[in-house]
Amino acid sequence: MTTIIEPQVRLFASAKSWIEGEAVRQLYAAANLEGVRFAVGFPDLHPGRGTPVGAAFVSEGAIHPHLIGGDIGCGMALFKTDLVRRDAKLDRWATLRFNLEHPWDEYVGDFLAECGLESTEFDESLGTIGGGNHFAELQAVEQIFDAGEFKRFGVGKEQLVTLVHSGSRGLGEVILRDHTSEHGAGSLVAESFVAAEYLRRHDFAVRWAKANRELIARRFTAALGSEAELVWDGCHNSITPVEVGSARCADRMSRCDVPNSEVVWLHRKGAVASDGEFVVIPGSRGSLTYLVKPIGDGEGHAWSLAHGAGRKWARSESRLRIRERFRVPQLVQTPLGGRVICEQRNLLYEEAPAAYKNIEAVIQDLVDAGLVSVIATFRPLLTYKTRKHRR
After folding, report:
1. Which neighbouring-strand residues pair with 233?
2. pLDDT tens digits, residue range 329-370?
3. Whole-angstrom Cα distance, residue 207 to residue 253?
């Protein structure tokens, strides 16, 4: 079912998948960068700013900061709450302010210490969602396909969960900008001092982004009268070392130093690690989220999987298309019955479900390629993007 399988380019998508030619061109261009062994695209592949989104790249002896972009550490995390489905009060909850575009009211220093993070100029951004496709979303279990694996995941059938999508906010952008202004946008020798300094700051941004998702979840669920407990976290934009020949991916926060082992560098841009027991892959706010189990050793697909549905239309095109086809009331309540809080009209258009690919097709491509099995699905109940910028 793979539409492209070559030594340097692999695309895990059926012929029916919506893959733009520009995204494939970008994938080939990345495969030709210095030291890159191969580039992998997934069914959610779409064009990015010079680099395709929904892809992973394996290099030897060189790293490429520009491949993962400025939102270093961006990803998703799923948290369980003590709310159950029968307690859902969507109409009332949709009126809550949440205030996730504003700094946290409490002292952030204690939370930083809890997470082992030092203070930065971005402390006020910690616990805020940001723009674009980032969100906090309350979900309910929709259907369970593998009861045994779902039980191991640790979420009850009636238990509500919170899914958060966010990254390192402005921190990652500053890291990339500082690096490129001093050293340019080219490749780096992996063992060089410059690479080590970039990776040190990169690793901090990855940890910061994970902490950001946790604080967002705490704030979001607290407004609902509940607490958030982390179940799973997956980073989408990162550079990590991998020991070739081992199904085990190296620790993200350390460098590999196993004697006589061959280390390659894995760049993910809108792709999620497949080296764990579970992976969460969401659709749009108007479609289901999938809990899947990775299959196989992962090396042939760069130890990675699709990170979501992937965009079908660029933002500018989405604004034009959606504005002509839908009114605002049709966009703040989804066909699945979920409520959407997004008081910026352009963002509401840009992130409409129709702007994204079909998540069922994406998941089916992964299943047909032998990369995953489906464990369960979740239904979005309440999606928070932003209020108007006022307290």
Report:
1. 77
2. 999 999 899 999 999 999 999 999 999 999 999 999 999 999
3. 9
* Annotation marks residue 307 as catalytic: yes
Contacts of 327 (CB under 8 A, 6+ apart): none
Residue 6, CA distances (Å) to 3, 223, 329, 339 in order:
10, 50, 47, 44
What's the CA gap between 139 and 110, in Å, rounded? 29
Is there a contact between 19 and 45 (Cβ–Cβ < 8 Å)? yes
Alpha helices (runs of H) in 262-327, residue ranges in sequence order: 315-325
Which one from 102, 267, 307, 389 is the annotated catalytic residue?
A: 307
Structure tokens at 217: 């979840």
Name the stretches of the chain with pLDDT < 70: 1-3, 5, 245-261, 389-391
How many angstroms separate the CA atoms of 267 and 33, rounded? 12
pLDDT digits (tens, 9 = 90+) for 231-246: 999 999 999 999 886 5
